[in-house]
Design goal:
Blueprint (H helix, E strand, L loop, with lengths): L28 E3 L1 H19 L7 H23 E3 L15 E6 L8 E7 L10 E3 L3 H6 L7 E6 L2 E11 L1
Helix pairs in contact: 1-2
Length: 169
């Protein structure tokens, strides 16, 4: 049919469904037990929002349902691909997935400053909570290190040297 015979109001835009946190191709979707529980809770909330959607039949309802169902599909993919690693089962004397790491900057503008963060799955990562994804350059640079060891990491546009001062699980 020619577009000349289609009302413009009948055309619905495809909804924009925001992507989940990036998981590079080929990477295993590691999750902490807490991170996995967060994914399942998020799924329950989405399913609840879908079943209790309080909108009249029509364009707005179809659009909202498409977004919610799209988010649920992406979330289900993450849940199905999740490989749960319990931090307590990691080697306790070296940095691995789930480790809570304390380190000190030895060089750069933050020289002498001590920081702490935990290595978690991509969906659990939250910089405000000092949780970084295992695929982050800093996490990759520190994985396998032990207390007292140093690492060089490119941060804030500069190569900086760090020293590991604590590892906890």
């Amino acid at each position: 049919m020619s577009r000349g015979f289609v009302k413009e109001d009948d055309q619905e835009e495809a909804p924009f469904i925001p992507a989940r946190a990036a998981l590079p191709n080929g990477e295993i979707n590691y999750a902490t037990p807490l991170g996995y529980e967060m994914l399942k809770k998020e799924k329950m909330e989405l399913e609840n929002n879908i079943s209790n959607l309080d909108l009249e039949e029509g364009k707005e309802r179809r659009h909202t349902l498409a977004i919610l169902n799209g988010k649920l599909d992406l979330l289900n993919d993450r849940i199905l691909s999740a490989r749960i690693l319990d931090p307590k089962e990691q080697p306790q004397k070296e940095i691995r997935f789930g480790a809570l790491i304390t380190f000190k900057f030895l060089t750069g503008t933050q020289s002498g400053v001590t920081k702490e963060f935990q290595i978690v799955g991509v969906d659990e990562a939250n910089i405000k909570e000092n949780k970084i994804a295992f695929v982050a350059p800093l996490a990759k640079a520190l994985t396998g290190k032990k207390i007292g060891e140093k690492a060089e990491v490119f941060m804030a546009g500069k190569l900086q040297e760090l020293e590991i001062s604590g590892i906890a699980y």
